[in-house]
Amino acid sequence: MSELSTLARPYAEAVFKRALETETTAQWSTTLGFVAAVVNDIKFAAIIDNPKVSDEKLISLLLDICGQQTTTESESFLKLLVQNNRLILADSIYKLYEAQKAEKEGYIDVDVSTAYAFTKEDEKKFSATLGKELNKVVRLTIQVDKSLIGGFIAKAGDLVIDGSVKGQLQIMQKTLQ
Questions:
Q1: What pLDDT is attached to residue 1?
Q2: Distance of alpha carbon 14 from alpha carbon 65, whole angstroms
Q3: Please, which residues have CB within 8 angstroms of residue 82's CB and are 6 or more apart in sequence?
Q4: Residue 17: its pLDDT value, please?
Q5: What CATH number is attached to the domain comprising 89?
Q6: Same structural domain for residues 28 and 96?
Q7: Across residues 15-37, what is the average pLDDT?
Q8: d(CA 139, CA 134)
Q9: Same domain, 98 and 111
Q10: Could you report the per-residue pLDDT of 50-62, keeping only the tens digit for each?
Q11: What residues make up the domain containing 113?
């Protein structure tokens, strides 16, 4: 995974720099997300790995699938990825691009797993508290995971906050062993 990020970083940085220059960060975000989803599709991944499929056919198929999701500039970028055998990096490029965009715009995406669903009020309080700690505007994605027993696990980039009962029990178990 880290190798893919290393390879993807220059592409993500170049796209982000160009998106800032042309004031098209939202459009690039949509395009990169769509391309990442296409490349992650099992059927399309098989086509990428097929040596019988030429670069031209792969580019043509990809652009047909993407349709209105691309611009002339993003089409050129996709052609570059295919020609350099880097289309497999699409998901990593998208994630790195989104991280740069979030940093520039002053927000952070946080994935939260909770044992029980948050009320709207709980969600606002949690977001505000986390925002103060991280000095950013927090955008939450919340999912319920009953296996946590109680509490939550919050993931923001490399930061993981484990406030779950399950996590505390695992720490106790390691301590007792």
A1: 52
A2: 24
A3: 55, 58, 59, 62
A4: 97
A5: 1.10.520.20
A6: yes
A7: 96
A8: 12
A9: no
A10: 999 999 999 999 9
A11: 106-176
97 and 138 assigned to the same domain:
no
Instruction: Give phi and psi for 35, each to the nearest 5.
Output: -65, -40
The position carrying tokens 């399309």 is 44
Distances from the Cα of 6 to the Cαs of 3, 141, 148, in angstroms?
5, 26, 33
Q: How far apart are CA 174 and CA 36, in angstroms?
A: 39
Q: What are the tens digits of pLDDT across the range 102-127? A: 889 989 989 999 999 999 999 999 99
pLDDT (tens digit, 9 = 90+) per residue, 4-19?
889 999 999 999 999 9
Q: Whole-angstrom Cα distance, residue 145 to residue 112?
A: 10
Which residue is it, tokens 């390691």?
174
Do 40 and 73 share a structural domain? Answer: yes
pLDDT of 124 = 94
Q: Tell how far CA 10 is from the center of its chain.
A: 16
Non-local CB neighbours of 164 within 8 Å, separated by 6+ positions: 113, 115, 148, 149, 150, 151, 152, 153
Q: What is the dihedral of CA 127, 128, 132, 134, to 10 degrees?
A: 10
pLDDT in tens, 125-155: 999 999 998 889 999 999 999 999 999 999 9
23 and 37 together in one domain: yes
Q: Give how many domains the chain has, as a whole number.
A: 2
